[in-house]
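This protein record is not my work; I was only asked to verify it. Take the sequence as given and treat only the tokens as open to question. I have pasted the whole thing underneath without changing anything:
***
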Amino acid sequence: MSYSTAAPSPTVTLDDVRGAQKMLSGVARVTAMEGSRHLSQLVGAPVHLKCENLQRTGSFKLRGAYVRIAGLLPEERAAGVVAASAGNHAQGVALASALLGVHATVFMPKGAPLPKISATQDYGAEVRLHGQVVDETLAAAQEYAAGTGAVFIHPFDHPDVIAGQGTVGLEILEQCPEVRTILVGIGGGGLAAGIAVAVKALRPDVRIIGVQAEGSAAYPPSLAAGRPVPIENPDTMADGIKVGRPGEVPFGIIRELVDEVRTVTEDQLSAALLLCLERAKLVVEPAGASPVAALLSGLGDIDGPVVAVLSGGNVDPVLLQRVLRHGMAAQGRYLAVRLRLTDRPGVLATLLGVLSAADANVLDVSHVRTDPRLRITEAEVELHLETKGPAHCAEVGRALRDAGYTVID
């Protein structure tokens, strides 16, 4: 679906983004642009990765947070700031506040990853846990601001924040001046809106594609309705883009300047995260991997060079373990198999020998000998195996059946 590419919204201009770039000099890193041979071969055009996962605090969020807080009046700074975030904006606000000498209180969802909570506290912010999703946390933070006089620093719905995020777009044009297509993840929309303002003002021919998680995609129905529309129960492992309603300011910009919004599945996000880790040697959180997931999903004919923005790398190690296993399963490189065998000495060792001969790596074995479903002479074994892909999975299955095992699942 394509949308109008009319002139930029008056709420944020190219001059605003350029002003933000000067303000961020010496504060935010000019992050690397890395080529990806694997993705280039897959897409049929040069693909580059804009590594905001290597930004200070691990995401692009420092840019917008710093610009917003730096623009406050002295009396506003004295009252302190308050923010709400699943983690990346929280860390951006915490560090920006510390650099500017402002007290920060940050509300985070109760399910926020522990590393993000700890990092936010380490940067000097006071952390309060409230709500299950970002929208509930936002409401709590806004209530706190109204009651205390602290200035609320919205994660995406403010012109200063969008201008700060737009500096990513200026860097893309400087690092890859021949770029033809930019893919960027969308949660509330601040990053995509900022990039669109900067890029479309200087290179209106560049195609900008926004990417959302399928289970948390508020922009497609909102764009169809012509206004921000909330969705119920957003659900995705990509907590960085798990937002139930677009922001008013970024929505207007994205509607005008972003050419298309795509959605990706959880399997595609998992596969993208795994690819970034294996092929690019980059640790990327699911939200940050969403542009790569869109490339893996197949975009059809796409003009290159392509730049995919890796927006963040703050992934919970527990989630990373689950996602990597899920990504391996999605690629046919992880096989769970349950089978029944005769319960006698040496049978399990023989089974493992069959799997070794089939070149399957055993990750885990669960051996059940007492169960009402089993005969007295039977046992059931569940194995988790690392394989080399779908064809190898089929070979392992055939090897087990040829050896006389009853494969149940």
